[in-house]
Amino acid sequence: MIQACIPKFGNPDVFRIEEVPDPMPGKREVRIAVRASGVNFADILARKGLYPDAPKPLPIVVGYEVSGVVDAIGEGISDDLLGKEVIALTRFRGNATKVCVTEAAIFPKSKNMGFEQAAAVPVNYLTAWQLMVVMGGLSIDETVLIHNAGGGVGLAAIQIGKKIGATLIGTASAAKHERLHAMGLHHAVDYRDANWPQVVRNLTNGKGVELILDPVGGSYWKKNYQLLRPTGRLGMFGVSEVTASRLPGILRFIPLVLKAPLWSPFSLLENRGVFGVNMGHLWGEQAKVAVWGYDLMKGAEDGWLVPHVDRTFPLEDIAEAHQYIEDRKNFGKVVLTCT
């Protein structure tokens, strides 16, 4: 099989494409012949040496999600799974033409989507579902602020929020606003405007919002918390601001720590809540996550869930895919394809 290996931390050009023996599934595992795999910001942080949950030691192969066909099974797996088209969360090693995962980590691919669209579902849609439905408890009469609305999680959140019937505000560069409105966003705000918090306040008649999805971190944490109206919830799922620092390695987190608000049980008695989401820490809850996956596949069957793939790259061009995301060129998901 072919895999994209990271032999050392650095820029996208560190990737090494190599041929290695096919993996063999263990007990209660299946092997997937990968047709497509999603690229996520966590992959980029891992390549830079900034993702604490990345596999160790170097060299490593990352990749959290794939779609493909089951082509081998391990002990305890029904023969019925052979040849099935599936979607899977992969605890790394998804940037390859074959990968082994536990049976609990897969769910059937909807016939309403191709393999490339399917690879856009696991991380982005499960994250958005956890943020908005499971932990965010968003309801039809509420307003949600979606940061980086043009990214993979952002577009997933727009579709879920539209299905719920909530009012949707999103931040993105001005060039993306027209497309976001076409996808169902009610109000688009330019994040490069230093006064964006006041714009959000004006859109809500000074009341603020009930739910905020924040993948940025740093200075955004305080600004977002101040935008919550009573019963509001701040859902944090990333710290992309760390990439803006020029400090070496883990020292990049220092500015974020200095900007972090000091929440306490007493400050949270203001009828506002804060929570964090990290799909990489839910491997022990695969049965629970699988239920969310089946709910999302029902959404695909019903027609309201339609993953938006911005661009695909062959696995061999993974360096170009990473650079494309780092340059903020993507509108939606970037996917790697395998032939």
Notes on the protein architecture:
- The chain is of the alpha/beta class.
- It folds into two domains: 2-122 and 301-337, Quinone Oxidoreductase, Chain A, domain 1 (Alpha-Beta Complex); 136-276, 3-Layer(aba) Sandwich (Rossmann fold).
- It contains ten helices and 15 strands.
- The protein has helices at residues 41-48, 115-118, 122-134, 152-164, 177-183, 196-203, 219-226, 254-259, 286-302, 318-326; strands at 2-5, 16-19, 29-39, 65-73, 85-89, 98-102, 106-108, 143-146, 167-172, 187-190, 209-214, 228-236, 273-276, 309-314, 333-337.
- Strands 3, 4, 5, 6, 7, 14 and 15 form a seven-stranded mixed β-sheet that branches. It has a six-stranded parallel β-sheet with strand order 10-9-8-11-12-13, sandwiched between helices.
- The mean pLDDT is 93.
Order of helices and strands: EEEHEEEEHHEHEHEHEHEHEHEHE
Low-confidence stretches: none
Number of domains: 2
Taken as a percent bin, the fraction of beta residues is 25-35%
Relative helix content: 25-40%
CATH superfamily of the largest domain: Medium-chain alcohol dehydrogenases, catalytic domain
CATH class of the largest domain: Alpha Beta
Counting DSSP E segments of at least 2 residues, the number of strands comes to 15
Rounded Rg: 20 Å
What's the architecture of the largest domain in CATH terms? Alpha-Beta Complex
Shape: globular
Q: Report the total helices.
A: 10
Which structural class do the helices and strands define? alpha/beta
Mean pLDDT, all residues:
93
Q: How far is the N terminus from the C terminus?
A: 11 Å
- The CATH topology of the largest domain is Quinone Oxidoreductase, Chain A, domain 1
Q: Describe the biggest sheet?
A: 7 strands, mixed
